[in-house]
Amino acid sequence: MTRPSRAEAPDHFFVPDSLVHSRLTAEHAVYDATVPAGDPWIYQVEKGQILRIVDVEGNQAADTLFYNAYDYEERYSAQDTIREQGNIYLTTGTRLMSNQVRPLLTIVADTCGRHDTLGGACATESNRVRYALDKSHMHACRQSFVKAVLGWGNGFSKRDITHNINFFMNVPVTPEGVLTFEDGVSDAGKYVELRAEMDVIAVISNCPQLNNPCNAYNPTPIRVLIWDPTS
Ligand SMILES: [Zn+2]
Question: Is 205 part of a structural domain of the chain?
Answer without folding.
Answer: yes
